[in-house]
Amino acid sequence: MTEPTPAPLAEDAVVVAVHEDAVERDGEMLVLVGSEVVLLSAVATALVGHAHEPADVSTLATLLVEEFGAPPSGDPFAAVCTLAGELVARGVLEQR
Amino acid sequence: MPARLRSAFRILIVDTEHTGRAALAERLLRRSLAAHGVDAFQIRVTSAGLDAIDGARIDPVAAELITRHGGNADGFAARSLSAPMVAATDMLLTGTEAERDALVRRYPRAARRTFTMGELQHLYRAVVELSAPLREHPLILANRRGRTPVSPDWELPAWDGPGAHADAVGRLLDESCEDAAEIWSALVGPSGSAATPPSSGLTLDVFGTRLAVACTGERGDDLAREMHRVWSRCLVSEDSEESVPVEVHVGGEPEAVAAARARGALAFPDILQALHHFSAAATVRGIDRGAGSLVMLHAAGIASRDGDVIGFVAPSGTGKTTLARVLGAHYGYVTDETLAVSGDRVIPYPKPLSVITESHQGIKLQWSPDSLDLARPTGDLRLTRLVLLDRRPDAPTTPVLEDVPHLRGLAELTEQTSYMARLPRKLNSLSDTVDHVGGLTRLSYREAVDVLPLMPELLGER
User: Fold this and answer.
1) Is B421 in Cβ contact with A35 (below 8 Å)?
2) Quick one: closest CA in B to A34, which residue?
3) Are A51 and A60 in contact (CB under 8 A)?
């Protein structure tokens, strides 16, 4: 069974990091959510780092583009909306 | 009830491949000794092969002969002879002079403890009265052999499949095992387990947690006797106020079983089921008590002679017990299921091993590490390596070791850690453990025996 793809968030959706514990190594992060762990890519790690205080997705997208540059194809804002949606679905972020 | 610590007289039967004659001799001698009221705490009989493949199955011809002569072929696995096995043995027996000579060439210091079975029978018959403790017999018999070279009446015939030779091997071993058991049974003290149960209760150490186990019900005494046997390495003498009480009830009317369950006992219709389920229950109680203070991994633990422990991490049912058994023939058996770590210290949990047995339609029975003759680890144990096991039929024929990136490995290890979220620093506690052992390694392999040659490398010995 494949898991359903989480819905992307809107650009004005406000999110905050809620994981219980994390270990960072080489720009990536392993976070503990309940009894499960989630391994985050470098971009997701940066996103979660910027969301320690509530922030809207478009602000987070701007910060990530500054940090990593725009993705080679597609809209960077749409990509961050999708990523934030996945992180909310995994319980790493919470939508306010 | 204090655990019995006196050591058994140890007999090791050696042939070449350890799937035929030595297996047959081991089981027939065990049969004869048991029939004479001698238990494994008095005389322990094991076997090995000069050129055995560790973990190889018993030859079906030998298994049939064992059964035909009233023995039990269950739970057998071949193992290769090693120096520590020889050093720990009081008397070594072979079926032929060629194997005796090969053994002595390899281990010269064992010469005066090594006899062919025919030679042994001849020497005992030549000595009218041998009123010396059993432990002194090898030297007395070797001295006699030295003074008057003996010509044994028989050697075991070649092992070449079913037929007249195999039948002859069975008959000769049957007779010589009976003869030996008759002589030896008169010389050892009274059996501690055969006649009376040691106690209807026992105390077990489950990585630091004391379980005070009460065996009750119609077959409570029988259960207690079996528990003492299979949990031999976890028995502790002292109870304490901190002990966790566990009642295990076996047998009787359904009403009695129901009443036992109602008062919180583990209750079962028969001993095999009780032993099977108790093993999991004991482990879980230890894990519950260790939550928050111990790193508890789903891992087999194997120790070097210096006390360096390798944790082989894998989910249940993926080969940890088989690996622990094969490696435990040569390295210290720490545990086969739950590896408990405090800082860098490993707390041993040498529980019984679940082994599939031929005579019970493939049901897993609990085997004491003593019955399987697994090596005992010595001294303080330190965790020095963590290996993620990847056993699959399509793995390379030669096992492959590779480093696993820290977070990726930590994510896998988390899934094999009990109560990780209760550790003081949660993920960081586990991460510290991984850092302490220098990171995680993945081992891809097909069969447990393939891992044996890697042990020196895994232990950093080369």
Assistant:
1) yes
2) B421
3) yes
Report the C-alpha gap between A92 and A83 in whole angstroms: 11
Please check whether residues B364 and B451 belong to one and the same domain: yes
Cβ pairs bridging A and B (under 8 Å): 42
Which run of H or E residues covers position B45?
A: strand B43-49
Does residue A42 belong to any structural domain of this protein? yes
Touching A: B residues 390-429, CB under 8 Å: 405-408, 410-411, 414-415, 420-421, 425-428
ipTM of this complex prediction, to 2 decimal places: 0.88
Residues B78 and B216 both lie in one domain: no
Per-residue pLDDT of chain B (462 residues; tens, 9 = 90+): 333 445 889 999 999 999 999 999 999 999 999 888 888 888 999 999 999 999 999 999 999 999 999 999 988 999 999 998 999 999 999 999 999 999 999 999 899 999 999 889 888 877 756 667 788 889 888 888 877 777 777 788 878 778 888 888 899 999 999 988 888 887 776 554 444 444 688 999 999 999 999 999 989 999 999 999 999 999 998 767 788 899 999 987 888 888 888 888 888 888 988 998 899 889 988 998 999 999 999 999 999 989 999 999 998 878 899 999 999 999 999 999 999 999 999 999 999 998 877 666 656 789 999 989 999 998 899 999 999 999 999 999 999 999 999 999 999 999 899 988 889 999 999 999 999 999 999 999 999 999 999 999 999 876
Report the CATH number that the domain containing residue A39 is assigned in CATH. 3.90.930
Provide the number of structural domains found in chain B.
Answer: 3
Between the alpha carbon of residue B409 and those of residues B439, B441, B457, the distances in Å are 8, 8, 20
B237 touches chain A (CB under 8 A): no
Nearest CA in chain B to A30: B407
| Residue B195 contacts A where some CB pair is shorter than 8 Å | no
> Which residues in chain B are closer than 8 Å to A44, comparing Cβ atoms?
none
Spatial separation of the C-alpha atoms in residues B311 and B340, rounded to whole Å: 10
Q: Which of A23, A26, A34 sits opposite B427 (nearest CB)?
A: A23
Same domain, B357 and B240: no
* Domain membership of residue B441 as a residue range: 295-458
Closest by CA to A40, choosing from A56, A24, A58, is A24
* Judgement on whether residues B181 and B258 belong to the same structural domain of the protein: no
Find the CATH number of the domain harbouring B376.
3.40.50
3-class SS at B163? coil
Same domain, B214 and B331: no
Q: Which domain holds residue A88?
A: 14-95
Contact criterion met (CB < 8 Å) for B410 and A32: no
How far apart, in Å, are the Cα atoms of B358 and each of B132, B189, B438? 40, 33, 42
Q: Are residues B440 and B342 in the same domain?
A: yes
Number of domains observed in the structure of chain A? 1
Do residue B266 and residue B313 come from a single domain? Answer: no
> Same domain for B301 and B440?
yes
Residue of A20, A32, A39 lying closest to B407 (CB–CB): A39
